[in-house]
């Protein structure tokens, strides 16, 4: 995997990002914000983030879901809308921060996952010695978790399945790479549509936003000169 890429002649160090695609997307959006005079040359990271948010609010339209769409989504995803659904879980975090050599961190996480799939009894020991999360001091224990208590990528890994034990793949979030073990699942009770109507609408709105952002980035990428990276629908999430 290349550690640097070029976007419209501007070199980008992909080593500071979880993937080259994310690095390229961020640079595309930064350049677009500058072209629209939303961002000054040489602006710092905070100003860049704010300008990109302003850019997306201006140029990416997100349709409001209809009541019928909300109802269809609810009926097709009933397990998402349960009261009292809990997961007892542990994790080991291999943190990714600006300047972190991402390929090396991923490789270490993959080695540890392979070891724990073969010897799950070592999970607590590895969490204490390797995890970058404060929970490492408790062997990676996260306790009881409900939907909405963690970032979406982590929640999906916890709740969209029935498996117990060490999950077979790394979970990639904005914080880094996680090894996750699910110790217990409590199914809870089904909530009626009326009780979760607003939540369903918000989830559909977020999904529509992700699709619109992906399309917007593909348009920008089609107009750009890219070297060392290819952008497609997999280039989400868009903003770190």
Automatic annotation (TrEMBL):
Its EC number is 5.2.1.8. Keywords: Isomerase, Rotamase. It catalyses: [protein]-peptidylproline (omega=180) = [protein]-peptidylproline (omega=0). Coiled coil: none annotated. PROSITE patterns: PPIC_PPIASE_2. The keyword Isomerase applies. The keyword DNA-binding does not apply. InterPro entries: PPIase_dom_sf, PPIase_PpiC, PrsA_foldase. It is an enzyme of class 5 (isomerase). Belongs to the PpiC/parvulin rotamase family. Residues 84-184 form the PpiC domain. Gene3D superfamilies: 3.10.50.40. GO terms for molecular function: isomerase activity. This is peptidylprolyl isomerase.
